[in-house]
Design a protein that fits this description.
heterodimer, A: 196 residues, mainly alpha, Arp2/3 complex 21 kDa subunit ARPC3, two-stranded antiparallel sheet, 7 helices, globular, B: 171 residues, alpha+beta, Immunoglobulin-like, 4-stranded antiparallel sheet, 3-stranded antiparallel sheet, elongated, disordered N terminus
């Protein structure tokens, strides 16, 4: 779920921009030419999958694939997501320019959670469980981010924040299952640079 | 890679961008909004704004349509909120045709001028509604694939250029 234009308070937008700016600068500074195609591929993946909506009751949420983005890009996830979210706001009216920093931060932190979760658990738990958690947890983290951003913007958004949180639970589950199959496929082909 | 192809494929089935068309004629405001898959934006809220000032707000019906008499000053913008981060805007320009018809009508002040003006307004109003419906049909038929490919093209362009610059620097 993207947060729309004009929903967030100036304070939330400013704070998220201040937090995001060094993360983007750091990623841009450290990005090597060899990594760019990987960042572009996953930016394109996010751009496309987030237009696929999962209807849940009266609302719908969209796929994000933050787990795989996080594992493959680590801290560069912020750059990939920023470009994808910017283009979505400009071309297809998802999210917005004013909420870009908040949306990037939420999804980026989700992806980063997937990255560290994978690092931490990959030798400790069976692959199926690790892959499920890597798909499941980042979505929950991103939805908590959305809820927090909405609550900090206005108390009126309490119900929207709760809905956002609850609506993402089935999505997190579906992405967890998808990640199990994705891991199996990636393991089978042993893609270079992806140590799954 | 196969998995990525499988993941990318459903965009053709369930892409979800929001589109809006609107017309304003004879104080009658017409708005229709729908998602990229053709589903109407049911009960979506909209705001009519002029220079960031809110003139009017309301919500669309179950068919994603709003059609009511509202007194508004053109030009203005219509902003539809589809929820969950989806929004769409459309601008309504000032109606130059009214001025034109006023001049013409002033010249023919003699017989039947009131009737003629009324007839013109009715015809124009109906034509505008039909135009909006045709625009909607065109927009619905325009595949989201076009916007999607445009986005992917931008991503390819941005990162391609970036890689080119970095490669040159590395040399």
């Amino acid at each position: 779920m993207h947060i729309s234009e004009g929903v967030l308070s100036a304070g939330v937008i400013a704070t998220s921009s201040i937090i995001l700016a060094p993360l983007i600068l750091n990623s841009v500074r450290k990005l090597h030419a060899d990594d760019i195609s990987k960042v572009a591929l996953l930016s394109a993946l996010f751009f496309v999958v987030s237009t696929i909506h999962l209807p849940i009751g009266v609302t719908s949420v969209h796929f994000m694939m933050l787990g795989i983005i996080g594992i493959m890009l680590g801290w560069h996830s912020f750059t990939a997501l920023l470009i994808a979210l910017l283009l979505q706001a400009m071309l297809i009216g998802f999210g917005g320019i004013s909420s870009l920093s908040v949306n990037t931060l939420n999804t980026g932190i989700g992806a980063l959670t997937g990255f560290y979760l994978f690092k931490l658990l990959k030798d400790r738990l069976p692959t199926a469980i690790v892959s499920f958690l890597v798909g499941f947890i980042p979505i929950l983290v991103a939805s908590v981010g959305i809820a927090v951003a909405l609550l900090f913007s206005s108390d009126d958004f309490l119900i929207v924040a709760q809905t956002a949180l609850l609506a993402h639970l089935p999505l997190a589950f579906v992405e967890g299952i998808m990640m199990v199959f994705l891991f199996k496929t990636l393991q089978k082909y042993q893609i270079k640079g992806l140590n799954i | 890679m196969k998995a990525l192809i499988i993941v990318l494929f459903p965009i053709f089935i369930y892409a979800h961008s929001l589109s809006v068309t609107s017309s304003y004629e004879n104080k009658e405001l017409f708005i229709e909004s729908f998602f990229g898959d053709g589903n109407p934006c049911k009960g979506c809220n909209f705001v009519v704004k002029k220079d960031e000032k809110e003139l009017y707000k309301g919500s669309l019906d179950n068919e994603g349509v709003f059609e009511e008499e509202v007194i508004l000053e053109t030009p203005f913008d219509v902003h539809v909120d589809g929820g969950m981060g989806h929004w769409a805007d459309v601008s309504i320009e000032g109606n130059e045709m009214d001025e034109e018809s006023d001049i013409t009508n002033n010249l023919n002040t003699t017989m039947n001028s009131i009737d003629e003006t009324k007839i013109r307004q009715i015809i124009r109003s109906e034509l505008n509604k039909q135009n909006s419906k045709i625009e909607i049909m065109i927009e619905k038929n325009k595949s989201n694939l076009e916007k999607m490919l445009m986005g992917l093209g931008y991503i390819l362009g941005i990162f391609g250029l970036w890689q080119l610059i970095l490669r040159k620097k590395e040399k």
